[in-house]
Amino acid sequence: MSAAERDNGVQSEPIMDGATDATNEEKLHGLVEQVQHDHGDEGAGVMADHLRDRLDETGVEAEDPASEVE
After folding, report:
1. In 3D, which of 30, 25, 27, 37 has the Cα closest to residue 68?
2. Which intervals of the chain are annotated as region Disordered (predicted)?
3. Per-residue confidence in pLDDT tens, the chain, 70 aa
4. Among candidate residues 43, 47, 10, the one with its CA nearest the CA of residue 31
5. Are the CB atoms for 55 and 62 separated by under 8 Å?
6. Neighbour-count burial of 28, counting CB atoms closer than 10 A to its CB (0-12 exposed, 13-18 middle, 19+ buried)
7. Between 24-39 and 44-58, two packed helices, what is the crossing angle to 10 degrees?
8. Backbone conformation region of residue 23, classed left if phi is above 0, alpha if psi is from -120 to 50, else beta
9. What is the pLDDT of residue 1?
10. Is the pTM for the entire model greater than 0.85?
């Protein structure tokens, strides 16, 4: 993140150590946890909408529906 972005309060990249080293599956699990925490009380439909938005924003790939995600 550039100094200008930091000064303007813009986050354009992950800020947690190791975030850029995570596998797609690990990133997906993190997004699911984040959306569940932020919108879990709003119902599954709203959570699904927010998760799709976060996938688009972050470039994380959705898993194959037939694959098992724990």
Report:
1. 25
2. 1-22
3. 455 555 666 666 656 666 678 888 988 999 999 999 999 999 999 999 999 999 999 889 988 766 555 5
4. 47
5. yes
6. buried
7. 140
8. beta
9. 47
10. no
